[in-house]
Design goal:
The chain has about 140 residues and is mainly alpha-helical. About 45% of the residues lie in helices and about 5% in strands. About 20% of the residues are buried.
């Protein structure tokens, strides 16, 4: 698979990171990630982007996407997904993503946001009141 834009200024990824002998092929990474998340609830921010790039569909009911969680969006008076930096700053008074995006930092931030409302979120899900908006329709193929 050819990469058309590494977005190095944001990701910190340079061509040599993906073209070394130690870099596993995309299909092996894709298969590994699919196996890791199969049958699990995944928590993150704008998960549809990651699922789309990886070409991995996942059960919508098994996602907890803090970008789509309506109480967060309502608290910030936004009718669209809110960036992780903004969510963290306004809801937790904590900075994240200063400089390059760091996947571990982003995962921790998303999980910290989720944990602050996990009881309410899971309560809503268990009663059939899905507390999230839908991801952009162009990403519907990412969800089962």
């Amino acid at each position: 698979m050819d990469v058309s834009d590494y977005r190095s200024s944001t990701t910190g990824i340079e061509p040599h990171h993906l073209h070394s002998r130690d870099t596993p092929p995309f299909d092996r990474v894709q298969q590994h990630v699919a196996e890791l998340i199969k049958g699990k609830v995944i928590v993150g921010h704008s998960l549809w982007n990651d699922l789309s790039v990886l070409g991995i569909p996942h059960l919508a009911v098994a996602t907890r996407d803090v970008a789509l969680y309506l109480p967060f969006r309502n608290a910030l008076r936004s009718n669209q997904p809110v960036g992780l930096q903004t969510l963290m700053w306004h809801l937790m008074c904590r900075r994240c993503q200063d400089g390059h995006h760091h996947p571990v930092e982003n995962a921790r931030a998303s999980l910290d946001l989720y944990r602050t409302v996990a009881t309410e979120w899971e309560g809503a899900v268990s009663t059939g009141n899905w507390p999230c908006s839908l991801p952009p329709s162009s990403f519907s193929r990412c969800y089962l």
